[in-house]
Amino acid sequence: MKKIHINQLGYRPGDTKKATITTAANRFSVIRAADRKIVFRDYTGSPFEDAASGDMVRIADFSYLSEKGAYFITANNENGFAIDSYPFVISDKPYKSLRKALLDFFHYQKCGVSVECGEWSHPACHTKLAKIYGTDQEKDVSGGWHDAGDYGRYTVPAAMAVADLLLAYELAPNPDENILDIAWFEIEWMLKMQDEKSGGVYHKVTCKRFNAFDEMPEDEHEELYIMPMSLAATADFAACTALASRFYPDKKEALLTAAERAFDWCLENSEMLPFTNPPEIQTGIYGNWLGIDEHYENKRFWAACELFVATKSEKYHDYVKKSELFSGLGWQNTGGYGLYAYLAKGGDSADETQLQRMKEYLLSVSSDIVAKYKADGYGNSLGTQYRWGSNMYVGNNAMLLLLAATVFPEKASGFKEMAMAHFHYLIGRNSLSQSYITGFGHQAAKNPHHRPSIAKGKAVPGMVVGGPCMNTDADPILKESCGGLPPAKCYIDDAESYASNEVTIYWNSAVYFVMAALDL
Q1: How big is the chain by its Cα radius of gyration, in Å?
Q2: 102-130 in b/e burial notation, b at 16+ Cβ within 10 A?
Q3: Is the pLDDT of residue 76 over 60?
């Protein structure tokens, strides 16, 4: 394993450039690959223990180096022998192909249509009518994206992924013009998941159980079932469609009608229990998670904020002003989207007291991320909490800093630099020198828990894998390899490790947002 950990793709000339060294070296050198000449030399920072990995680390800052070219870093190990980093480049656009690949993933995940994507191409899948669970009724819910490594489609994560893409389009200095078309493919499916009579939204559509690891989507022939409506799905749907209404003016009326009906359903069914799988269903839940916020108030907060921004109605404004505040950008807690909506888009209709309340709260949450980032040896902000899908939290924390940068312009430069460090972590500046994005980096994930990749024997490029997961008991393969290791090192590049190596649309969307907002 490498002992000099860097972003394995490279750096732009003017960006902060740091490596983490896990030897006793007090000096390091940057070597130009073409002629092996030293182009930069300096002392490392003082050693300190990184709590999440257990490593004794030193930081090597080579930001001064801005000349374009190919390089590697060298330093001495404890025995005085030279050790090298992976090679990297300094160039104007070292990440251009990665940004495109992150976005292309949503094409690979399409359901209900034929997909042309090289060796992973497949004919239309899951095109039959699906049965509404517990009834004899059938409904067309074709389309949308396969959520993760399986072929289920889930409303809750869909809302997150769409929100990330739309906000990326809004905040990117140079947005990818095809984002609105990409996102609409999922929104159109979400609209099918709303019950025409009540306005409630069905939680998911899947078969009764997961299919075999090595099956392509067109080979899953089991009957499809639409699971019951839920508060989580309906509130997230209301928020997402209200948000989408400002990006699709020709569809604004239909989107707002759908959003308002869904919000009303949430109010009328506020005491409904969290979604759980019916006894015979074994696919993903996206429901109550370890008892967190079982009534999904954070999701209704997001919906109310988006509906207020879209309609300026005091009905939604009153709800926002009476609600507690939430800051998350994950599927369990979506309140951060609501904070951004109100603070950035509330306009003259926003309440000054509420604005100040939200700003103080957002600054407090951002400050907590900053504090953890500053204490981390790898430019991360998770502390020692590497939960299932830890790379989602890496992306989400970077995203929250970038959203906060729009609210606090005086802090924007620092927030952006820290968000960039989170990106570096994902591409190799971590304790395992592991690129957590398939196809990118010298040590990139190659065996994701992703059925088309398993079926074809080759990973779809541009997928963000889950990353280290300290809850190894939930994953036999992970426990066998990593049980007892520090949280940041509980990762294995194995297709059977669903807790550390699965992929999802909303991990990709968060990292894509970071790249787009930073103009990478």
Answers
A1: 23
A2: bbbbbebbbbbeebeeeebebeebbeeeb
A3: yes
pLDDT band per the 50, 70, 90 thresholds, residue 77: confident
CA distance 360 to 412: 16
Q: In angstroms, rounded to a whole number, what is the distance separating the alpha carbons of residues 30 and 25?
A: 14
User: Residue 452 class from Cβ within 10 Å (0-12 exposed, 13-18 middle, 19+ buried)?
Assistant: buried
Single out the residue of 396, 397, 444, 491 nearest to residue 163, CA to CA.
396
pLDDT number for residue 291: 44
* pLDDT tens profile 440-453: 999 999 999 999 99
| Confidence (pTM) | 0.97
Q: Which two tokens stand for residue 234?
A: 């309906």
pLDDT of residue 491: 98
Please name which of 502, 518, 494 lies closest in space to residue 463, comparing C-alpha atoms. Answer: 502
Whether 290 shows a pLDDT value over 80: the answer reads: no
Measured CA to CA, the distance from residue 195 to residue 200 in angstroms comes to 5
450: helix, strand or coil: coil
Torsion-angle region of 122 (φ positive above 0: left; ψ -120 to 50: alpha; else: beta): beta
**Closest Cα to residue 369, out of 291, 305, 421, 424?**
421
333, 317 Cβ separation under 8 angstroms? no
Decide: 152 and 205 in contact? Cβ < 8 Å.
Answer: yes
Task: Give me 448's structure tokens.
Answer: 């994701």
Indicate the DSSP class of residue 326: -
pLDDT of residue 296: 80
Cα–chain center distance at 164: 8
Amino acid of residue 277 = N
Alpha helix stretches (DSSP H) within 36-194: 96-108, 155-171, 179-192
Whether the per-residue pLDDT at 295 is higher than 80: the answer is no
- Surface-to-core class of residue 80, CB atoms within 10 Å of its CB (0-12 exposed, 13-18 middle, 19+ buried): exposed
Chain length of the chain: 520
